[in-house]
Write a structure and sequence with these properties.
This protein has 591 residues and is an alpha+beta fold. It has 17 helices and seven strands. Strands 1, 2, 5, 6 and 7 form a five-stranded antiparallel β-sheet that branches. A two-stranded antiparallel sheet has the order 3-4. Helix 3 packs parallel to helix 6 and helix 4 packs antiparallel against helix 6. It is elongated.
Length: 591
């Protein structure tokens, strides 16, 4: 076996694994941009879509995409299982074994299907999404791939798309747009006047992690499309054009959202980076590094306005998939006809409009955009409509409000309460033992008695001892000063809980991808104290002095009469229950 075959195969393997790893990135971005009640559903969709696309592409998709020279669709050697695949020895490259080429193309197919998931998130039926993904990857995607990468009619006209601006991103984007339009917006996305309302994602940290995974994966997506490492200069050039477009888009998307929305919106910055990566995908091997910076910078601006446009036209896309993959995929394809420059790599042999090539290449690129758009949108819409009439594509309103995690899967990603396992001296399935806690020794009668007799409900509180509960709600940053002030007057026992709420100020104004969030709960602390010896007035006066600034957010004090307090360990009640061996002057009230 020649050294070239070994090196090229290892390169394709490495790049394909990076692209496969992008599935995790898509799952993280989408679930981060969505609400927590739909996390299991979104992770499940991103998980199963690769399995579905793998089966579809293996059964028939590869054959339709690369099976012969028919200008419309592959017609030869359609089925690749259980037979020799020597027919494909020279397909794409002759230096990588068949199954290596198959897997590399498979992960691209899976990416196109994953794009759809984000646009239909939080209201699509799980089973309907699975069926649509299967049809997309076994039929729609391979046909477009044949037109451009499989020797079809667009390839014969000179259409260029190096790593998939049209084949992957636009196909996924058109299918996503059809699904989002037919599904309709999420409940609560638009008010009675049709104005878009923000539905913030639940975990921007997860979204950023997903972004970096996708960014990393793109270094396999674009450079790996060479399917060869025989010319390292080509690979390194593509690597740098890819990264340059991404960083330029990050800056312009941030600046655009800052100028037009008023704040540097993180969601827009994330989409901006993805827009730059998508925008350069088709032309990464055909343009200079300087041109890649321009392409990325423009893509970063375009995606911000695309998100706002789709919101205002009632195309509800929770993650901005149509803005990133469709709009910037189309833009990136046009950029091939504008910025292509002969000789920047050994793969670039044609000049675009800006480098003296005239309108020839640009015209072919626009024709390809239109042909693919019409075919994919109509065929995808037809499939969505068939599914809508047969099995339904949208969950019920009740399921949508409750969350698809419960409605579709029966469990949640973030359980609000966890049942504490009993601590006992017994072995688990792994043979581990757990020590018991030593109980408090108390005198018990020798014979069993009923609970009513054993624990009589009798108020034995000391008469005349008034007990008062003081609850303070204030900003988190004031807790340390409040604690110190209370300690000085002898209040050493208190309970602190993190709470969310707002007063007349209605919370801080927030925006999510350009749309205002109507009411945003603010983080506060709730401090509970029960006092008996110390006068309530002294406690209130101390709290007011500690918290007062004269501005909104100083907080509020609530005062309640306490009927009784019972110390469970000793059975003491009232005033006595508030004292311990060290005669503390206050006690904890747990909420």
């Amino acid at each position: 076996m020649s050294t070239i075959i070994i090196i090229d195969t290892l390169w394709v393997l490495f790049a394909a694994v990076l692209v496969f790893f992008m599935n995790l990135g898509f799952a993280a971005v989408e679930s981060g941009f969505a609400r927590s009640k739909n996390t299991v559903n979104i992770l499940s969709k991103n998980f199963i879509v690769f399995a579905v696309s793998s089966i579809g592409f293996m059964l028939l998709g590869w054959g339709l995409m690369f099976g012969g020279a028919n200008p419309i669709i592959g017609t030869e050697h359609l089925f690749i299982l259980g037979k020799s695949n020597d027919f494909y020895n020279d397909t794409l490259t002759s230096y990588v074994p068949f199954w290596g080429k198959f897997f590399f193309q498979l992960v691209f197919c899976g990416t196109a299907a994953t794009i759809v998931s984000g646009a239909v998130a939080e209201r699509v039926k799980y089973l309907s999404f699975i069926v649509f993904s299967f049809v997309l990857t076994i039929f729609i995607y391979p046909i477009v791939g044949h037109w451009i990468w499989g020797g079809g009619w667009l390839a014969n006209l000179g259409f260029m798309d190096f790593a998939g601006d049209t084949v992957v991103h636009s196909v996924g984007g058109w299918a996503a747009l059809a699904g989002a339009m037919i599904l309709g917006p999420r409940h609560g996305k638009y008010d009675k006047d049709g104005k878009p309302q923000a539905i913030p994602g639940h975990n921007m940290s997860l979204a950023v992690i997903g972004l970096f995974i996708l960014w990393l994966g793109w270094f396999g997506f674009n450079p790996g499309s060479t399917m060869s490492f025989q010319n390292p200069a080509n690979v390194m050039h593509i690597l740098v054009t890819t990264n340059t477009a991404a960083v330029a888009a990050v800056l312009t998307a941030t600046a655009t959202s800052w100028i037009f929305i008023g704040k540097p919106d993180l969601g827009m910055t994330i989409n901006g980076c993805l827009a730059g990566l998508v925008g350069i995908t088709g032309s990464c091997a055909y343009v200079s590094v300087g041109s890649s910076m321009i392409i990325g910078a423009i893509a970063g601006v375009i995606v911000v306005f695309a998100v706002l446009f789709f919101d205002r036209t009632k195309v509800d896309d929770p993650v901005g998939a149509t803005s990133v993959h469709l709009v910037c995929g189309v833009f990136g394809t046009i950029c091939i006809g504008l910025f292509a420059q002969e000789g920047v790599t050994s793969l670039s042999t044609v000049n675009g409009l800006f480098f003296g090539g005239g309108f020839a290449l640009l015209g072919v690129e626009i024709l390809g955009i239109l042909a693919v758009g019409v075919f994919v949108f109509i065929s995808s819409a037809l499939i969505w409509l068939i599914l809508q009439k047969t099995m339904g594509i949208r969950v019920t309103l009740e399921e949508e409000i409750m969350g698809l995690d419960i409605g579709e899967h029966g469990h949640t990603a973030y359980p609000d309460f966890a049942i504490v396992a009993p601590i006992m001296d017994s072995a688990n399935e792994y043979g581990d033992t757990f020590p018991t806690l030593s109980p408090v020794e108390i005198n018990r009668p020798s014979s069993a008695v009923s609970p009513d007799v054993a624990v009589p409900v009798v108020n034995k509180a000391r008469s005349g001892a008034k007990m008062t509960k003081v609850t303070i709600i204030t900003n988190q940053e004031k807790l340390a000063k409040l604690q110190s002030s209370l300690d000085k007057i002898g209040i050493t026992g208190l309970t602190v809980a993190n709470v969310l709420g707002y007063g007349m100020q209605k919370g801080h104004t927030e925006y999510f991808r350009g749309a205002p969030v109507k009411t945003r709960l603010l983080p506060k602390v709730q401090v509970d104290i029960v006092v008996c010896k110390i006068p309530t007035e002294a406690v209130v006066d101390t709290v007011k002095k500690a918290l007062y600034t004269g501005n909104m957010g100083d907080g509020k004090i609530f005062i309640y009469d306490v009927e009784n307090v019972i110390k469970i360990r000793t059975g003491e009640e009232g005033y006595d229950a508030l004292q311990d061996e060290e005669d503390e002057l206050s006690a904890v009230s747990v909420q």
